[in-house]
Amino acid sequence: MIPVSWYLLLSAFLFACGVTGFLIKRNIITLFMSIELMLNGVNLSFVAFAANLGALDGQIFVFFVMVVAAAEAAVGLAIIISVYRTRETLNVDRVNLLKL
Amino acid sequence: MHLFLFLFFGAVCAGAAVNLLIQRKTINSALSLIVVMGSLALLYLLLGAEFVAVVQVIIYAGAIMVLFIFVIMLLNAGDEEQSKGSNVAKIFGIPSLFAGGIIGIWVLLQHRPEEKLLPIGALYGPADKVGMMLFTKYLLAFEATSVLVLIAIMGAVVLARRSDS
After folding, report:
1. Which residues contact A84 (CB under 8 A, 6 or more apart)?
2. ipTM for the complex?
């Protein structure tokens, strides 16, 4: 028997790791993986709440989050390839054409 | 047993998430993200969400991470370049992070509802029930996601195409 808050704590920890990675990492692919980590944390809390409330709707939402994550990964990685072709770098600090 | 499984896979999950942050090489970060996703699938199984657990392994750990590793190998992403963090982050960011965390924990401890204990397989949701719900209550959203995926495929093809015409 596990309290639901333990699952939520793990979910919050994963989300916090994702946010930290997004802020401190410089590689654009690692930034993308941090976003995936955040989405995974949110998915865990969806499933934990679904189990807590005894409703299946949370699982459906997790399914939709996964579809959006897949679409985002496909488009985002295509953008990364395109950026690498034009700028020859994966460092986000060097992609600064819009910077004043 | 349930407690042991939760603690073990939760620790693996948290450790791999921290490992993602401290690794310098991109491919090591990607592999630890796969460990996070695999242990999350086992936590979903503990909660009884079989459908989500299987989809997690197939889509996340299978499809999405293969795409990531494929791009890492294609672009030959090696070590991460170091760059100096700004001083504003050091002066204001870290104290405000601690302050925000303490305020958040305090607010959460003020409003603490009664907790329900989840037994193993708490969520009774076999895949056929999820499928029925997906095609009745959430049919419009389901169709909208199919349009979204179609647009994403076309966008990926257009963006990654070599423009030498």
Report:
1. A90, B75
2. 0.91
